[in-house]
Amino acid sequence: AVREWIRAHSRDQEMLLAGAQRQGEFSTTPLHYVCRNCPPVDVVQALLHIAPHTVEWTDSFSWLPLHYACANGASEEVLRMLAEAYPLSKTANDRRGRTPLHFALGNVQRPISAASVYVLSSTGAAACHDENGMLPLHYACAYGTSEEALKVLTDASPGSVKDTDNKGRTPLHFALGNADRSTSPAAVRLLLAEFREVVDFTDADGQLPLHLLATQASRLSNDQKKERRNAEKCLELYLASQPKATADFLTALQSLPEWLRDCAVVAPLVQDTLNDKISKRFPTMILLLDAYFLVIIIFSFRKASFEAVNWHYANEPTGKFFYPNLWFLFLGGLYFLIREVVQVASLLSLGLGKTWLFDPTNALDVTCILLAFFWFYIMFRIESAEVTGVQHEWIRTGIACSTAVFWMAFLSYLKSTLIDFAVFVGGVIYVVRRLGAFIVALVVILVAFAQMFLTVFQQTSYCDCRCNHGENYGECTLRLDTLDMCSDKIESYELEHAPFCTLSDSLMKVYTMLLGEVDDQDFKESLVAKWLFVMFMFLVVILLANVLIAIVTDSYGVIRNQRAAIVFWSNRLDFVAEMDAMTSGPWKKKVKSILSFGDAPDGSTVDLSEGDVFGRSGWKHLIELYDDEDLSPVSFEFWCYLVARVVTGVFIIPSWFLVGVLSAGWLWPPQMREYFLKQQASKHMHGDTLAEKRLFQLMEISNGVRNIQDEMKVEMNSDRQEVEDMKRQLVQMKSEVVSEMREIKDIMTTLFDTMPPQSE
């Protein structure tokens, strides 16, 4: 329409000028309107020819025509034409401080090409901030663009990679905050190649780029497989850049959703970091103290509760160790209380209080603490209290349940310490989750058979001649009207309890039958009961039991071969993150000064958890005694070495080990702590048998094929974009050729009309 209007008024220059300068709503000119609709090059060229000064006019939002063209995905030729007509427009800002380059990089539907970015950034636009302090590179990482376009931006403004907006966020924050986009892995790779240290930058809220990745990844559903794969690639690139193992880094790893955290904990960097952290003095000391005090709580509680129950039921006096055991119970509860309070205070000082709340292990710890203090109070006054029979039973039940809780805490401790035990516990939990449908089906079948057996035996001599559940336990009181009928059966049945005469007893009986406890005497009086018994044994004992074995074997194989490392390292991550938060608390300097053996020469406190700590060089010299020496057995040096080796192996090393145990690992040399606490998960990942190794190899091949497929998809998308750009250029060239042919036709027509008629 614009082209036709210009052609229709091509001879009326005043009307053309007036039309091109006319301003409509929000002070927009026809050039603004045209640039808003992806215009052909000839239309923009015609408007610039008619009123070239309108390219400098802004609307009521301070938008130039170039802003409109960039915001709506105009072609490179149009952008170049507008920029050449008014070069200052490339760095012109609207009311919110945005340049045309900001608009172009914020267009998600029509990503800008690298050539267009080069045109727009040639005069310094790549270094312009908007009102939020965001550079065009921030926009490119947030909304997604090609790696080539990002390279143009970083070349135009090298410092923009580490530049921050008003909230302290770098371009890497935005790239990882939108890690689900297909362009994000390339953006992360480019940013880290330009400036690797940006991985450790935190924003104004103290968040690393990894925190934003965790937030975005938690929004991805199971169906968004491509988006999840993009996030995994971004995480791999981030970890490959060797970020510092700070408390923020560890808590960011904890905040990752489970599917992404599984990828993180098997990364070599994370495993090396966790191994290094846990073998430091403070984590080792806490790890051993946890074991010591858990054992103290379990055994002191057992001893004290045993004497308390005997006192109530048999009036046996408590022994001389009753109250010492109670005080040991109190001491264990006090230790874990102090540990938990310090941990919470440390996390709160780092702004990570939610991490403690959402960790189920902490709920178990708090439960143990409360139970320890509760039973200390109850048993401390138990001799002076008047306890009724109901309270007797309540106390005994409570002690049994509390014992289970304490042992669960011990199992949780082992799970976070030993990789084999972590695999076992993780396997049990994984199998139980997989057994949901099977358990429901089994319960339905057991209830059905229990009701069928109850119906078959109801109101028969089987139930009349045996003690019912409602009669006095331990006695058999038969009804008078059935006494004669049952007189000949009393001797054979021996008045035993009938298992199928009440629903509860019937349920218990079929459950024990499932486990193999069967008495065929219960079914000999009824043919229907015999057939039900045969059906039960085939369906439940033979069929379902083997299905259960198959499910458990398959599920445990999965956890052992595919998730062994994940289970263990996830537990270790939780523990190390807690310890790192505690050592990063507000009292960090005081603790260091108390636990240090001395001061540095310059007067500063020596941190014994770093560098050349006590015992490292001494242990090294001891181990060097066992190096092979080419000495003759008849030489004096040989016998000196032999005596030194025997004394070291028999006395020094065992004594040093025991001293370290008594000091909760504090006096162990670093090499000994590393030997006991550093773990390698490769053998669990690769498997022990040939079949497991082949399975692992197949998994690696599958992952490699998937990576190749993803790379091919990215390349195909890039090629498709180039083809579309070429097609668009061909269309524009065609329209330009048609326009030029029309102009030539008009010129030829005009010339023909102005030619004087030829005389004959």
TrEMBL record:
Pfam families: Ank_2, Ion_trans. It is found in: Membrane. One of its GO terms (molecular function) is monoatomic ion channel activity. Keywords: ANK repeat, Coiled coil, Membrane, Repeat, Transmembrane, Transmembrane helix. Residues 709-743 form a coiled coil. Residues 294-562 form the Ion transport domain. The chain crosses the membrane at residues 282-301, 321-342, 363-382, 394-414, 435-454, 531-553, 642-668. It comes from the Eukaryota. GO terms for cellular component: cytoplasm; membrane. Its main location: membrane. SMART domains: ANK. GO terms for biological process: actin filament bundle assembly. InterPro entries: Ankyrin_rpt (IPR002110), Ankyrin_rpt-contain_sf (IPR036770), Espin/Espin-like (IPR052420), Ion_trans_dom (IPR005821). It is a multi-pass membrane protein. This is Ion transport domain-containing protein. It comes from Proboscia inermis. The lineage of its organism: Eukaryota, Sar, Stramenopiles, Ochrophyta, Bacillariophyta.
